[in-house]
Amino acid sequence: MFEGVPIISIVILMPLIGALVTFGLGKYERHAKYVALGFSLAALVLSGLMTLDFAIDPDPTSVGYHDGGGFFDYQFYEAHTWVSQLGISYIVGLDGISLPLFLLTTLLSTLSIVFSWDTKLRPKEYFGLMLVLEVGVLGVFSTLDYFVFYVFWEIVLIPMYFMIGVWGGPRKDYAAIKFFIYTHIASLALLISIMAMYFEAGVASFAMEDIWRAGQTEFTRFFQIAVFAAAFFGFGVKLPMVPFHTWLPDAHVEAPTAGSVLLAGLLLKMGGYGIIRVAMPTLPDGADALQIVMVVIALASILYGAMLCLAQKDLKKMVAYSSISHMGFVLLGFATFTQIGIVAGVFQMFAHGLVTAVLFMMCGVVQHHCGTRIIPDLGGLAKKMPTAAAMITIGFLASLGLPGLVSFAAEFMVFVSMYETWGLWLLLPMLSVAITAGYYLWALQRSMFGPLTDKIDTSHIHDIDWFEGVPVAILIALIAIFGVLPMIVFQYIDPAVGIVTGLFGLPGGG
Amino acid sequence: MAVWDYLVTLLPQLLLVLFALVMPALDYMFKDKRVLSWVALAPLVSLAAALIAWLFFGLWEPNASLISLLEVNLFSGLFTLVFVFVGIVVVLGSPEFIKADRNQGEYYSLILLAITGMTIVAEAADLIALFVGLEIAGISSFALSGFRKSEKRSAEAATKYFIVGGFSSALTLFAISIYYGVAGTTQILAVQPVLAGSIPGTGEVDAGPILSLATVLLMAGFGFKVAMVPFHMWAPDVYEGAPTPISGLLAAASKKMGFAAFFKVFLIGLIITKTDWQMAMAVLAIITMTVGNLIAISQTNVKRMLAYSSVAQAGYLLLVLPVATQYAVAGGLFHVLTHAFMKSGAFMVVAAMGAAAIGEKLEDFKGLSRRSPFLALAMTLFLLSLAGIPPLAGFASKFVLFSSAVYESFEPGESWLIWLAIAGVLNSALSLYYYARVIKLMYMDKGTSEERVKVPPMLAASVVFAAVMVVLIGLAPGPFVDACLEAARGFSELPLGWR
Fold first, then answer.
1. Of the candidates B392, B360, B93, which has an alpha carbon nearest to the alpha carbon of residue B241?
2. Does a structural domain hold residue B497?
3. Which pairs with CB-CB distance under 8 Å and at least 24 residues apart come from A52-58?
4. Which of A303, A343, A308, A359 is nearest to A326 (CA)?
5. Which of residues 174-193 of A touch B (CB under 8 A)?
6. Does a structural domain hold residue B498?
7. Dihedral (Cα; A481, A484, A487, A489), 10-degree rounding
8. Which of B392, B418, B419, B439 has the highest number of chain A CBs within 10 A, making it the mutation to test binding with A?
9. Would you call the peptide bond into B230 cis, given omega within 30 degrees of 0 as the criterion?
10. A161 at interface of B, judged by CB pairs closer than 8 A
11. A to B CB pairs, distance under 8 Å
């Protein structure tokens, strides 16, 4: 469909142009949301068409197909030199790992814009920044050059910093600056490891493919371990992993709802994507040596995150901590080094993106309609807002891994791969399922069901608004569809991951 | 014929001096003092055009110098371009800022003279020429910082600057005399063959302790100029007290002159004794960036904050000396170039605030995005660029600069240099705190006043120029990196101690 069309660049340009138009609206500020929606919708439609056009069993001779010799097999491939003196190029392309995340980005951005329909405070900046954020995340998921990758990686921080700092909650100043600096330090660790790989590879090119190819012979085991540690730190903070997760609850709780959706739905995925795209394939010996560290951190994130959720009084904070726990499954899947585990990890990123978006949107609805998110102050809201209560229930059930909904498939596959690799150590992550069910059901019981609360004024609480309900409904539909038919996504992910594990030379390949 | 060739070599200096001498006379001829700044722009813009045509388009090439004192090459050309660019930004930003002051002719005249001195330093092939350049620039800057002589702060700044500057000149001169004693000449290059014992008849010259003394004195002398810790104390006071455009000139150009001297003397003259000073320079670089950033965090005056930030930036630039490769010098030149724009731009924003009688305190920046979206956006660009956030110029140059240390650390025996890169990177993260705080104040806090800020057109033009360059270099670093690598190649063609 897109032969000879630089379609990825066009998709990235859509929100960029949209952002510039939105910022330039001046006194027509109240139309900002229409402009933003139009451009993000265009990106969504185009990326949807790309997904349909994406060849699962590609013809290596077709236009836009890049044959990277087994690993960097990309479609919609574009390559242009940017700074020839340093070997920096603008290279973009998608494979089965990045495509679902690329689509997730355009989807969640569009839905977040719809969800923020009644934003009154500085709308043109608000919607403009959301589009800038979309540009950054799309760039991260499609770029195949380390330098450009890093540029996009850092661009993401700035709009998020402003979104938390301007439209955030009461402690927004603290949360914004903590988010910015914490994740910036992690990025700098990544930057150093990129520089080290660039020079050690000695190919005078920042292209991921060139460095990966050179690295197979040039990177010593010691070098790989050192650089993998730095890169893993850089990506892991974004993921986030215990003990570097403390920026996340602050950022999430203070961010406006759409900001939390994008933060949890997209920004966390950048960390996971970096590990599977950059760190593990390029530095396999480093990953091999540090496998046990990855597993321990993953288990700690899963269990500690879940236990923290039990202790939370704030609904949104609970959802935020649950992200730590669920992103731990991504890392655990990757750390098994098995085909099924890595596929499950990638799928869990996609699934968590959908589910957590629903959860944060529903937290936003509760906050918006009741004026508080403190669980003990809520109660019996199902009587006042039945649709919202139904949606929040579905969201919670999806998140705790109810069979038939999307997270179940992902978590189940992680468990399978864990059992294959380490046998009965599986019991540790299994434990978290019980805790997760515990905190979600307990929270549901206290906030939605039971007698109507008398701690807040419930007289004018009304049910969910259309602009809140529509995005959530769309997401719930997708959660159900992909929950019943996860193979729709697997057919994209599986071949790409097969290549990765084959390359590793590790057990379970192919 | 020969005279004509001399003149061509000295043309930039002659042009600047000519205009500098005419300016005070023009002061009496025009009622509208803005004309003065237009006149002062003329030599700067024409020089900038000539230099760009040479450095980036290769349309012409200067003749090889006939004067043993000065050498025009790509390195000096690039530095001259930086000085001229900063001059343009400062001169454009000045008329509104000093519109109520007397002696405006002298003001521009001194700026042009300061730039003349800086270009001489960049071109110097001889320590005497270097010293003369340092003095011309220094004395003009002393006078400029005290330009508002009735103002206490300004007078204090000038006095402080004068005393410290005089002291550093004395140290430099003393070091030069020792250097002369060792080498028998004041040519920068000449000490190398002497030490290598390669001049027939002289044999081995054991100048160890003597030359070490000269090295330390030079470190101190130039260290004052670039505000290297522990010789940085004057910088915040002077930047705070001087008229804001002049603070921009000092931070963005005068400091770069110090680096031109550092690079020349240490990487050409003293490169043969690199092992003696390498570790000391590395430690000083790390201390300088860390101290600058840490103190900047606690500042409440934006000019002082920018002053400490430029101390920190000096620390990043000092990393070039211990690494000492062509790539590092290229990174240093590139960072000199980008820093000139982002720092002078930031000072011009502060000058615009001053011109609108708002103030220079951090709290005066509260809610600026509502009062002047233009100033707030420009300041955000400059600050993010200073912090090294892509895709702005500061990121590109820091990237080249720090990666040069990473690169060199792969060489056997040099692996400790990686710590320079790590220190630089951690410091960048640290600096983000105080840069982001200003952005936060401008965008997220409510100010006491909602009144629009009027930005005078020429000041706006100067801010726009700097901002456009910051974005342009960030988006298309290619030609600039190329020019810097070319300029640094001159260094690696020298005989000794280079990789």
1. B360
2. no
3. A52/A1, A53/A1, A53/A2, A54/A94, A54/A99, A54/A492, A56/A96, A56/A491, A56/A492, A56/A495, A57/A495
4. A303
5. 176-177, 180-181, 184-185, 188, 191-192
6. no
7. 30
8. B439
9. yes
10. yes
11. 77
Out of A2-6, A133-137, A182-186, pick the least confident. A2-6
pLDDT in tens, B314-373: 999 999 999 988 889 999 999 999 999 999 999 999 999 888 888 889 989 998 988 888
Cβ–Cβ under 8 Å, residues A447 and A369: no
The predicted structure's pLDDT at residue B498: 46
Cα–Cα distance measured from residue A135 to residue A12, given in angstroms and rounded to the nearest whole number: 6
Q: Which portions of chain B are predicted below pLDDT 50?
A: 198-199, 202-205, 495-499
Answer whether residue A498 shows pLDDT above 90: no
- For residue A502, the model assigns a pLDDT of 67
What is the DSSP code (8-state) at residue A86?
G
Biggest alpha carbon distance in chain B? 78
Output the CA angle B160-B166-B170, nearest 5 degrees. 150
Q: Provide the 3-class DSSP secondary structure of residue A76.
A: strand
- Phi, psi (degrees; rounded to nearest 5) at A220: -75, 165
Q: Which domain holds residue B256?
A: 2-492
Q: Is residue B377 part of a domain?
A: yes
User: Which distant-in-sequence residues (6+ apart) come within 8 Å of A212 by Cβ?
Assistant: A71, A72, A281, A282
Residue B349 placed within a domain: yes
pLDDT band at A442 (very low <50, low <70, confident <90, very high): very high
Q: What is the pLDDT of residues A315-365, one digit of tens each?
A: 999 999 999 999 999 999 999 888 899 999 999 999 999 999 999 999 999
Given a contact cutoff of 8 angstroms between Cβ atoms, the answer to whether A351 and A279 are in contact is no
Whether the bond into A429 is cis, omega within 30 of 0: no
Q: Is there a contact between A157 and A180 (Cβ–Cβ < 8 Å)?
A: yes
| Full-model pTM | 0.87
Rounded-to-integer distance, Cα A54 and Cα B188, Å: 64
φ and ψ at A449, to 5 degrees? -110, -175
What does the pLDDT read at residue A508?
A: 39
Mean per-residue pLDDT of chain A: 90
| Residues of chain A found within 8 Å of residue B488, distances taken between Cβ atoms | none
CB burial readout A46-81, b (16+ within 10 A) else e: bbeebbeebeeebeeeeebbbebeebbbbbbbbeee
Number of domains comprising chain B: 1
> Is there a contact between B440 and A173 if contact means CB atoms under 8 Å apart?
yes
